[in-house]
Amino acid sequence: MYKLYDFLPSGNSYKVRLLLTQLQIPFTRIEVNILNNESRTPEFLAKNPNGKIPVLEISPHQYLAESNAILFYLSQNTSYFPDNHFEQAQVMQWLFFEQYSHEPNIATSRYWISILGKEREYKQALEQKQVLGYAALNVMENHLKKQDFFVGKTYTIADIALYAYTHVAEEGGFNLTKFPAIQAWLKRNEIFLD
Amino acid sequence: MYKLYDFLPSGNSYKVRLLLTQLQIPFTRIEVNILNNESRTPEFLAKNPNGKIPVLEISPHQYLAESNAILFYLSQNTSYFPDNHFEQAQVMQWLFFEQYSHEPNIATSRYWISILGKEREYKQALEQKQVLGYAALNVMENHLKKQDFFVGKTYTIADIALYAYTHVAEEGGFNLTKFPAIQAWLKRNEIFLD
Q: Where is the GST C-terminal domain (chains A, B) (predicted)?
């Protein structure tokens, strides 16, 4: 059985739990409290030398890190990853957008404000993250005005990856009321949560 | 024929040019000078709403953004992407490592120092990027002590993605003399450059 080393408040961990649950794949969850530096112990670094959760233990001593690489791995040959070659690449495009333009701004703001409770301490850095985070939300909004899901006509791991931190963006100080297409897409995602 | 919208000094663009050249795929290059905001014009934003280079035009009105998604697309069914399912996911793991832990520190430092020439202006931010950039180099060094290439036993797009900014890391103020395994790997990569 898969073992998932993760941290409950992490959106990156949430992505993997969501897909495993949707695919009805059983797994054991092992909590790694990153606030206590539990992802920096020698034992954990042997699993992921980059010291980050989530990590999927596929079999003993076979580990996979990076949430979006785990989504890629688990979704192969399922409806969550397209068959079409160009659409597969479009999924990857949105996964890299998520990790480069979305997560470092929206997730990091949420981490500082709602998980660490240090909004004042990070005031200046948060201002820049607001600008870049809203820019990412605008890219999503304009795309979702034209289509129901990020790639093709169906729900894929691109939606899962972007849903994770977007649906809690308000915990990072982002106001979604000006993004009707994102809000409608969030609702469409909820259908898949049950 | 493919059209590549790119900017010569960009390592993200370099990755794509390198793979296209290695695969002997002809392409037309269109220079987009990001220093003149040419990636923010309405014409360019119609190609990539996220306003970043490189962008691959696969056919008229069919665009793919995000350098590592382009590498994924071009490498399918070639020796640069493994056949094995787990090794494919490991390639993805290193591509996400590159975009999250490596590029934002090493490439951004190089951009500020060597492309913008604003080392003094960014002094404080550069200090943090040095710490995180060296942490990424340490992860690479420890991995390359054990194997010749990042995934499996052969050269893949994981090596191309990480080569792009590592081989010019000194332009970002990173000293590679303490990383012998990285240096040996850089030399192994050069074999594929001709």
A: 84-194
**Minimum distance, in Å, between the CA of residue A49 and any CA atom of chain B:** 6
Question: 3-state DSSP call for residue A29?
Answer: strand
Check residue B192 and give its pLDDT: 85
End-to-end CA distance of chain A: 22
Q: Is B99 on the interface with A (CB under 8 A)?
A: yes
Share of chain A above pLDDT 90, in %: 97
Residue B23 shares a structural domain with residue B103: no
The 10 Å CB-count burial string (b at 16+, else e) for B1-24 is ebbbbbbebbbbbbbbbbbbebee
Q: Where are the beta strands (DSSP E) in B21-134?
A: 27-31, 55-59, 62-65
A66-119 tens-digit pLDDT:
999 999 999 999 999 999 999 999 999 999 999 999 999 999 999 999 999 999
Same domain, A35 and A93: no
Give the up-direction half-sphere exposure of residue B94: CA atoms within 13 A in the CB hemisphere.
26
Q: Residues A46, A95: one domain?
A: no
Contacts of B70 in chain A (CB under 8 A): 89
Is residue B80 in some structural domain? no
B100 and A101 within 8 Å at the Cβ level: the answer is no
* Token reading at B20: 């296209």
Q: DSSP 3-state assignment of B131?
A: helix
Q: What's A13's domain CATH number?
A: 3.40.30.10
For residue B36, the SS3 value is helix
| pLDDT higher than threshold 80 for residue A4 | yes
CB atoms within 10 A of CB B46: 10
Mean pLDDT calculated for residue range B5-30: 97
Q: Which domain holds residue B138?
A: 85-190
Q: Does A88 touch chain B (CB under 8 A)?
A: yes
The reply to whether B178 falls in a domain is yes
Please tell me the total count of domains within chain B.
2
Q: Which two tokens stand for residue B102?
A: 């490596």
